[in-house]
Amino acid sequence: MGLIGPNGAGTITLFNVLSGFLTPEWGRASLHGRDLLGLPPHGRARLGLARTFQDLRLLPRLSVLDNVALFMLVDPGERLRDVLFRWRQTAREESACRRRAAAILEAVDLSGQANSSPGDLSYGQQKLLGLARSMAARASLFLLDEPVSGVAPGLMDRIVTLIRGLAVSGGAVILIEHDLASVARVCDRVIFMDAGVKVTEGTLDEVRGDPRVIERYLGG
Q1: Distance CA 89, CA 86 (A)
Q2: Residue 10 in contact with residue 195, Cβ under 8 Å?
Q3: Rounded distance, CA 88 to CA 92, Å?
Q4: Domain 2-60+119-216 has what CATH class?
Q5: What does the mean pLDDT of the chain come to?
Q6: Which of 9, 12, 44, 152 has its CA 20 to 30 A from that of 174?
Q7: Domain limits of the chain?
Q8: pLDDT over 90 for what percent of the chain?
Q9: Model pTM score
Q10: Residue 200: enclosing H or E segment and its boundaries?
Q11: Residue 108 main-chain phi, psi, to 5 deg
Q12: 194 has which bridge partners?
């Protein structure tokens, strides 16, 4: 599903509410039958929600591989008890996490940059890394904030293909994007928002043909 609208439409506010960065005054949100609004952000992540950010928020002091591995929800090395008393099994599980992170980097064409700093990547590759981190979380709902904005056409095609793959493999994707050509390639359904209100919903062609959308967004 695509969320589109003019500046100030409320799309990012909606993402902030769903991911736990803002508390709404009223309303409900649920995932897999569980109340999202009663959970902290990390609880929502464990329930299956992953989010990317427009400003990327990569971790520059970690390698590309470690940026991905960090997002895996099961990390035995974070538990002191396991490190002290189950160190052999913990080491095996840590190795498995890193192998899976390497496989994800292979899937997004970043395996050659595994040991690089995120700052050494191009902007499009950084967008790919952000998507790879959300894939590492084994999420069932992906909130993607402008995943192809500012990306060169070649990498844009790669990102669009990966996003479509998330949906084909059983995930649900909600994306905010101003590039309507990419929205057309990815989204089965589009919601047009303005000033925090849903104005209309349908296929992209249906939404683009709505007079209110033409007036407020397309400059008609």
Answers
A1: 6
A2: yes
A3: 6
A4: alpha beta
A5: 90
A6: 152
A7: 2-60+119-216
A8: 76
A9: 0.88
A10: strand 197-202
A11: -105, 15
A12: 197
